[in-house]
Amino acid sequence: MEIFNHNSNIHFLRIRKFTVGIAVLLMLVSIGLLATRSLNYGLDFTGGVSIDVTYDQPIMVEDVRAALDKGGIDNAIVQSVGGTRQVSIRFQPKDDKHYTLQEGKSPNLDLIAGDVSKALQASRQDAKIAGRNYVGPQVGEQLRSDGVTAAIFVIIGIGIYLWIRFERRFAIAALATEVHDVLVTLGVISLVQREFDLTVLASVLAVIGYSINDKVVVFDRIRELFRSSRKADPEEVLNRSINSTLSRTIITSLFTSIAMAALYLFGGPTVHGFAVTMLIGILVGTLSSIFVASPILLWLGVSKKDLMPVTRENPELARRP
Amino acid sequence: MSDFPRWRYYLVAIVLVIGTLYALPNLYLAKPAVQVSASHTAPVDQALQQKIASALQAAKIPYQEESIKHDKSRGDYVLVGFTNGDQQKSAADTLRPLLGDDYTVAYNLQSTVPTWLSAIGGRSMPLGLDLQGGVRFLMAVDQNDVIDKQETRYTQDIAALLKDKKISFVSVARNATRGQGVIIVLNSAADRSAASDAIATEYTDLNVTDGTNTGDRYILNAVIKPNKLQDLAIAAISQNLATLSNRINALGVSEPVIQRQGEDHITVELAGVQDPAEAKKVIGATATLEYVAGLGDGRDPAVQEAAKTGNIPPDAHLYYGTRGEPYLVSKTPIATGDELVDAASGNDQQTGSPMVSVTLNSSGAAKMLDFTRDNVGKPMAVVYIERTTDTKMVNGQEVRTPKTTYTVINYATIQGVFSNKFQTTGLESSKSASELALMLKGGSLAASMDIVSEGVIGPSLGQDNIDKGLKAVLLGLGLVLVAAAIYYKLFGLVADVALFFNLVILVAVMSMIGVTLTMPGIAGIVLTLGMAIDANVLICERVREELRNGSTPLASIRAGYEKAWATILDANVTHLIAALALTTMGSGPIKGFGVTLLIGILTSMFTSVTVTHAITALIHGGRKLKTLSV
Predict the structure, then answer these.
(1) ipTM
(2) Residue A143: what pLDDT?
(3) Same domain, B422 and B527
């Protein structure tokens, strides 16, 4: 079975000004979104509130969740804690100015606990607040900087590898598209205001890995075609490379997307963020492999002679006529 | 066949067999169980087992089996297995009130891995807190203790400083009110200004002010600066975090989460531990040692008098030993636990009795040297200070009261002058010696901590996550298998076999290394499966291209694998760099994901290339082919 015509010869590079223009635009929009709306940081980054509730009679976790939803406390994580009569509720008081103390340091636990108690007692009289805690950020500021460090480490590490295995221009083109992919993925997450927690951060870093994988396949073909073709017009070679790897690029994206869709549909709420981020990243990464990486390479002036296998440089030989 | 050497077939076969074998233990899911152990000296015997069984029968809770087990570190306990978490929960709820304070009822897991598999080292992956529940502690740092320790320290240091500078003084004592610093009483205004200057230059963290004069008593107040106290509290938390990490590592819990929470709290999450009692023994019992001058033991009439009447000399504490015998010891510690560098248990070379050898840091050593020089032949006591929290139910409300117990664990005559290295002998048994050494070696806590909240995260939530994770892995795998088979026909099926074995080998390697499986780890497995097929897509597309270019089927296979290999290598190395960065990020969930991805990339390179090549060569080798099913 073949979905793609193997003789396809779409002239991707002819529309390069248009596609790269869109990519730059998307990046700028993403930066704008991140600057104005920021990310909807999750419990892992901002901390939150945890409240322990005990019941005189056994209670189902689902009932607690329903009572909280009714009482206007959304996105609460409800867990049973050692036995059937105690639950722990964790949530983030969002944009609730009246919850914050004057110093703006930690939320006013009394108010929050009161609201939770009211919400729970509406359905079950025997609900009692047994303990309440302000949950500090698990990693918070440190984590955020760790994430940025890891991303930079990945991008630079990959850049060095490509520089050695390919050539300087390939490394630059890959890095530029990587930055694009990360920014646009983050931009989409910011746009839809999905909660940005630890698993999403892991997913964003995995997107870098996935997307570089995609680019390397195209780059590999470019190198191969430059080496094998006698008359190597860069634009022609790049275009042929994109076309001959097009089938693979899209099939792999599809297969990985299928796996991620399964994770999204069946993996439960804890991995939703991960799967969604990955799906966004796969789409962005695939498009940038086809439409963005090669135009940059062309502008950087890649040519056949840069890619010929390094022959033993013998000054004696070079001097001979 | 010529393009695939025979030894590689053997390699593939061996790896697949070993992989399957070591992945197998994960199919045997551990059963939820309830563990009953004795809190103190209550007997764990047939009668207890009978009592538990009849209680469960009366409550109509079906259980699978109950048995008395013995464990070196935990002693005897009764373990009862159940088919699901709900039964386990109900059983624990039934047994707790029945057995009372004498026994600890805790959740546990019962392994069902067959003995022949365990014998060859097969074990299932440990599951994270999100998959199997676990123990969670919340501890608060006692800020008062920080102040107490600092003010006591400055009291001693200031007295020493004044002696050193030859400034005569009447007294140096702590203010009766905590946080109000140290009161220095001097004889003249000149002495006071000299003392004030000396203290201010030596200890910049103190605010020194003149107090009111009464007659010829000239008062000087030295108070610790507020911002310094805050710094100390923060430093105390950091030190406690490090100390707890050491202690918990000694417990052997995989991937413990020990983190700061809020201003002065620390949370500890121990995945897989369903028995908080054991963990609490090491974490909660914030034990430390204090070396103090001994003022008399039980044979001394003055001590007997003090124990009988309760009239204790003002400079002394009345403490009791492990067998209840009274001692009078000095209130001023010579050295404390935070000056302790190392502690190791062993046997005394002369008497063969269990002992703990202790190493002190330089400040502790100096004080010890000072003290022992003047006091050879006099007694020195070792006081073991243990802080626990008593929980009582008063009017339906939990009331927690911190309790500090002081036990004189050693009372001996100082045999000679020593400083940084010495031994504590006369311990009960080698087990108690090693326990003590372990807790001391973990470092002492900069400030005492009380467990303010503690919980066992029920396994039912974890079971829910396991079910969902398993479903996601199997369906993700299934869908990719079907898609590959449709798109690449026979070559797709070959890739499918390889992908299946990729999952098996990935699980086997994770089990062998002992990677803790968490939900992010499961996400990593699904992602690996989705991306592992990429190598096969590359190979298949290459083979198709070669066929289109007019190569013969066998030549196409050879060229396809050869040309695709360079690309696969480059793509995977770059991907590996990304995974490596994820593993270096210290925090729990990301690390678990990164490790899974890292192993997955490595295993997929083997299965997607070597295994498929072997199968393809086996199918097509030695045959005259006109076409390829790709």
Answers:
(1) 0.78
(2) 67
(3) no
